[in-house]
Design a protein that fits this description.
The complex is a heterodimer of chains A (about 400) and B (about 280). By secondary structure, chain A is an all-alpha fold. Helix content of chain A is about 65%, strand content about 0%. A two-stranded antiparallel ribbon of chain A has the order 1-2. The radius of gyration of chain A is 23 Å and the shape is globular. In chain B, α2 crosses α8 and α7 packs antiparallel against α8. Chain B is built from 9 helices and 6 strands. With about 280 residues, chain B is mainly alpha-helical. Chain B has 2 domains: about 170 residues, Cytochrome c-like domain (Cytochrome Bc1 Complex, Chain D, domain 2), CATH 1.10.760.10; about 35 residues. In chain B, a hairpin with an 8-residue loop joins β2 and β3. Classes of the chains: A mainly alpha (about 400), B mainly alpha (about 280). Bound molecules: protoporphyrin IX containing FE (HEM). The site of protoporphyrin IX containing FE (HEM) has 26 residues of chain A, from α3, α5, α6 and α9.
């Protein structure tokens, strides 16, 4: 991703390195001068916020590992040791536990931003698909991380989710035993989850690198969804967007740290402060909030295998979105019908989240089923048809024209 | 206009509430613990030292005959942010308990008085012994009980807001549980179990632990059941979150710093962008 612009560096050391590895010109071209549409709004700051949260998770995680013990008889104690005896251990632990939640908040907003402004459409299909992979890898990482403190919900969450794989015919039981490393969730399970929980964030970091690389090949989309036509349409990334992103990160951190310091276990489950006990099943086994929509879809289907397939499909379908949406117009600003259905889709996802937190019975089960149907209909029926029947609003000729017409 | 919107929202909430009804009922009706204004609530709340000291007396004289506190070390009793006994007092408390140590040079295990670095000892040598002594029910370790329990059960559309303002109500739950035993309805009886409306399922193996005047309060506070329950629940809240005061204090500085930094960055951003239309 080296830039074509040729830069002259005065410092002889910098020059010497630059001639052998053009790292300085690359940084200049990609992080300083990089032409960025001038009309990006604050929804565009959540990519940088999410990347910052990944860094926070890796840094706090590495220090937590220095004090954590991945063994069923010591994991819970070692987390309490972190909370009580390690200097500022409580801070690390709460930064990490709440960091996962706020990482998901940032990424969910980032994804819905992409949906609203059509950022997945040509030429950004690969950029979008890498994003979906990041989302899936993140979910795997957070699921395994939640098992590590070995509380009641850690244990029973691991039991419920790993058991899902037994739904597959013939090979199901084999897969589950292979995941467990035995005949039940136990020490081998905890240790492999620990190993993978350490590994996956670095895979994630590599995916983020590819994501940004793809972004810098095709350039940013923007709220008007029209291509950059001239230099007039853009601003250099620095200082315009570095300073705006930094401001947004600080505001985001005010909320994040507000939870860390004043309600550190608000987003979690109280029962996870009780150590894992295979002999006593909690009254309600519920995943962390960020998995609730998927959990609702899983339980909405009466058949176990069907539920598992539907849940995984709800993620995989995102990979095909660039080809399912047939509209030539990217931004919902210019799509009167697209806009309405987008907001219905947002409401659907929120409803699924609430349904996922309730016992799967009675009215909530019906609600979850209707919402699941709409979730899939949005991708498989509505978006393919809308592009054919919708009459988009007139589009401005350029980003600059769009900006000036609003002033 | 505003009134109309509020009215609409209220109607919608009520409608959704009816939806939630059946789900709630199936969860086993558990009684909400009465709210109590503890000194440690809110962003600036701190523990009441005298209350923690009274709670410690209740714990060690009453509850410790059945419950352990394995994450509490005697030195914690003298640390800032807790009951703040003097080191001498903490040492004296420790010395009242015997703990096993060893092996010594002869290879023998031996017992010795506890030291500041020791954890509060369990009244039973193992879980089996604990169960055998309590009709088969295990008295749980209470080190994290206030964080591990919740005090109120509201419908889903208000519960998140109530918990954000009032917390999970763990201390209120413990307080209500140990002072809220009632006569069972319809004179029902269950072997070895006691009726308690705050306990999930309502039948608890723990006999009512407090009768009033169980401990003598040196500071003259009346030692009623309610007062003792309130104090020991506060003490257990501190054992569950011993770093709470440090957390809130550092949090205040961190948020203040961030706020100022964010305001400055807003001005920087505003100045940089003021010459471009966007
Ligand atoms: C994508 C980034 C990451 C996410 C989303 C994530 C998520 C989580 C979650 C949800 C927990 C459970 C927290 C709790 O309830 O206590 C956890 C625990 C843990 N994580 Fe991570 N994590 C990430 C990266 C890392 C990294 C890079 C490391 C190590 C290098 C790490 C090490 C740990 C350790 C040791 C624990 C157990 C201590 C504890 O429970 O607080 N994590 N993680």
């Amino acid at each position: 991703m080296s830039g074509h612009a040729s830069y002259e560096f005065k410092n002889p050391v910098v020059r010497w390195i630059e001639e052998r590895l053009p790292i300085f010109s690359t940084i200049r071209a990609q992080a300083v001068d990089f032409p960025t549409p001038r009309n990006l709004n604050y929804w565009w700051t959540f990519g940088g916020i999410a990347a910052t949260m990944l860094v926070v998770q890796i840094l706090t995680g590495i220090v937590l590992v220095m004090h954590y013990t991945p063994h069923v008889s010591m994991a819970f104690d070692s987390v309490e040791h972190i909370m009580r005896d390690v200097n500022y251990g409580w801070l690390l632990r709460w930064l990490h536990a709440n960091g996962a939640s706020f990482f998901f908040i940032a990424v969910y907003i980032h994804i819905f931003r992409g949906l609203y402004y059509g950022s997945y459409k040509a030429p950004r299909e690969v950029l979008w698909m890498i994003g979906v992979l990041i989302f899936i890898a993140m979910m795997a990482t957070a699921f395994m991380g939640y098992v590590l403190p070995w509380g009641q919900m850690s244990y029973w969450g691991a039991v419920v989710i790993t058991n899902l794989f037994s739904a597959f015919p013939i090979i199901g039981e084999t897969i589950v035993q292979w995941l467990w490393g035995g005949f039940s969730v136990g020490n081998p399970t905890l240790q492999r989850f620990f190993s993978l929980h350490y590994l996956l964030p670095f895979v994630l970091a590599a995916l983020v690198f590819l994501h940004i690389w793809a972004l810098h090949v095709v350039g940013n989309n923007n709220p008007d969804g029209i291509d950059v036509k001239s230099e007039e349409d853009t601003l250099p990334f620095h200082p315009y967007y570095t300073m705006k992103d930094l401001y947004a990160i600080l505001v985001f951190f005010l909320v994040y740290l507000g939870f860390v310091f004043y309600s550190p276990w608000y987003l979690g489950h109280s029962i996870n402060f009780a150590p894992a006990n295979p002999l006593s099943t909690p009254a309600h086994i519920v995943p962390e909030w960020y998995f609730l929509p998927q959990y609702a879809m899983l339980r909405a289907i009466p058949d176990k295998l069907g539920g598992v397939l539907v849940m995984f499909s709800s993620l995989i379908i995102l990979l095909f979105l660039p080809w399912l949406d047939t509209s030539k117009v990217r931004s919902n600003r210019y799509r009167p019908l697209g806009k309405i259905f987008f907001w219905l889709f947002v409401i659907t996802c929120l409803t699924l989240g609430i349904a996922g937190s309730q016992p799967a019975e009675g009215a909530w089960l019906t609600v979850a089923r209707i919402a699941t149907a709409f979730y899939f209909a949005y991708f498989l029926v509505i978006l393919p048809l809308l592009g054919k029947i919708e009459r988009p609003k007139p589009m401005p000729a350029s980003i600059t024209e769009a900006v000036l017409s609003r002033h | 206009m505003m009134k109309k919107i509020l009215k609409m929202l209220a109607t919608a909430a009520l409608g959704l509430g009816l939806l939630a009804g059946p789900a709630m009922a199936s969860g086993g009706a558990q009684k909400n613990a009465p709210d109590h204004d503890y000194s440690f609530e809110g962003p600036f709340g701190t523990f009441d030292r005298a209350q923690l000291q009274r709670g410690w007396e209740v714990f060690r004289q009453v509850c410790s005959s059945c419950h352990s506190l394995k994450y509490l070390r005697f030195r914690n009793l003298a640390e800032p942010g807790g009951p703040e006994f003097t080191i001498e007092q903490a040492k004296a408390f420790a010395a009242e308990y015997e703990v096993q140590d060893g092996p010594n040079d002869e290879g023998e295990m031996f017992t010795r008085p506890a030291r500041l670095s020791d954890a509060f000892p369990s009244p039973y040598p193992n879980e089996q012994a604990a169960k055998a002594a309590n009709n088969g029910a295990l008295p749980p370790d209470l080190s994290l009980i206030v964080k591990a329990r919740e005090g109120w059960y509201y419908p889903w559309y208000i519960s998140p807001f109530i918990k954000l303002v009032k917390g999970n109500g763990g201390a209120e739950y413990v307080r209500a549980l140990i002072s809220g035993y009632e006569e069972p309805p319809h004179g029902e009886e269950k072997e070895g179990l006691n009726y308690n409306p705050y306990f999930p399922g309502h039948w608890i193996a723990m006999p009512p632990p407090l009768a009033g005047e169980d401990v003598e309060y040196l500071d003259g506070t009346p030692n009623t059941v309610e007062q003792e329950a309130t104090d020991v629940a506060a003490f257990l809240a501190w054992v569950s979150m011993p770093k709470m005061e440090e957390r809130k204090k550092i949090g205040f500085m961190a948020l203040l710093y961030l706020l100022v930094f964010a305001l400055l960055m807003f001005m920087v951003k505003h100045a940089i962008w003021s010459n471009v239309k966007h």
